[in-house]
Specification:
Protein name: Citrate synthase
Distance between the termini: 25 Å
Low-confidence stretches: 1-25
Number of helices: 8
Strand order of the largest sheet: 1-2
CATH superfamily of the largest domain: Citrate Synthase, domain 1
Pathway: Carbohydrate metabolism; tricarboxylic acid cycle; isocitrate from oxaloacetate: step 1/2
GO molecular function, one term: acyltransferase activity, acyl groups converted into alkyl on transfer
Pfam families: Citrate_synt
Keywords: Signal
Structural class: mainly alpha
Shape: globular
Helix content: 40-55%
Radius of gyration: 19 Å
CATH architecture of the largest domain: Orthogonal Bundle
Order of helices and strands: HHEEHHHHHH
Largest sheet: 2 strands, antiparallel
Length: 176
C-alpha cells in the first residue's frame, strides 16, 4: 500500500473504498495462509483491473506531513486497534505483521496463532548458529541479522521453488 492523501484522490478510490471496508472485516480463520488463500486472488484481480484502468494516471504529490500509515492506519490508530500482550500497552509485532500482509486488523486469536507459528519456526540451522557465533563481537546487530537471513536461503522452500520456476502468482503458496 502506498501513502495517499485520500481527499486529493477521491476520483481514483471510489471503487477502492469498498475493498478497504471489506478488508477491515477480519476473517474468522486464525491460519494466516488460509486467510491469504482467500485474499490474494481477489487482490491480484483488483490490482490488475486498477492498473488497466488507471495505469497512466498521475495521482499527485505526497508530503512528509501526511504521516506514516500502515494499510491506511496511523501509528496511534495501530496502537489502539492492534492486539497487545496481556498487561502490555503497545501492539505485538505479530499484529502489525498480520495487518501489513492481509490489510485486516487481526483478532487476538489470529495474533496468538501467528506467535505460535513463528515459535515453531524459530530454530536456526547449525551452520547459521556457527556463522553468528564466529562474527566479531563489535559487528553491528543489523549486519549479523542480514547475514543470517541470507544464510537461511539454503533452507528456504521458497528459494527452492523459485529456482524450479514457480509462477510469480504462486510465490505465497510455496512457504510452509
Amino acid at each position: 500500500h502506498c501513502i495517499f492523501h485520500q481527499n486529493s484522490f477521491s476520483f481514483l478510490f471510489q471503487n477502492a473504498a469498498c475493498v478497504v471496508v471489506a478488508a477491515r472485516n477480519v476473517s474468522a480463520s486464525t491460519n494466516l495462509k488460509d486467510v491469504l488463500a482467500d485474499l490474494i486472488p481477489k487482490e491480484q484481480s483488483r490490482i490488475k483491473n486498477f492498473k488497466q484502468q488507471h495505469g497512466k494516471t498521475t495521482i499527485g504529490q505526497i508530503t512528509v506531513d501526511m504521516g506514516i500509515r500502515f494499510r491506511g492506519y496511523s501509528i496511534p490508530e495501530c496502537q489502539q486497534l492492534l492486539p497487545k500482550a496481556p498487561g502490555g500497552e503497545e501492539p505485538l509485532p505479530e499484529g502489525l505483521f498480520w495487518l501489513l500482509v492481509t490489510g485486516q486488523v487481526p483478532t487476538e486469536e489470529q495474533v496468538n496463532w501467528l506467535s505460535k507459528e513463528w515459535a515453531k519456526r524459530a530454530a536456526l540451522p547449525s551452520h547459521v548458529v556457527t556463522m553468528l557465533d564466529n562474527f566479531p563481537t563489535n559487528l553491528h546487530p543489523m549486519s549479523q541479522f542480514s547475514a543470517a537471513v541470507t544464510a537461511l536461503n539454503s533452507e528456504s522452500s521458497f528459494a527452492r521453488a523459485y529456482s524450479e520456476g514457480v509462477n510469480k502468482a504462486k510465490y505465497w503458496e510455496v512457504s510452509h
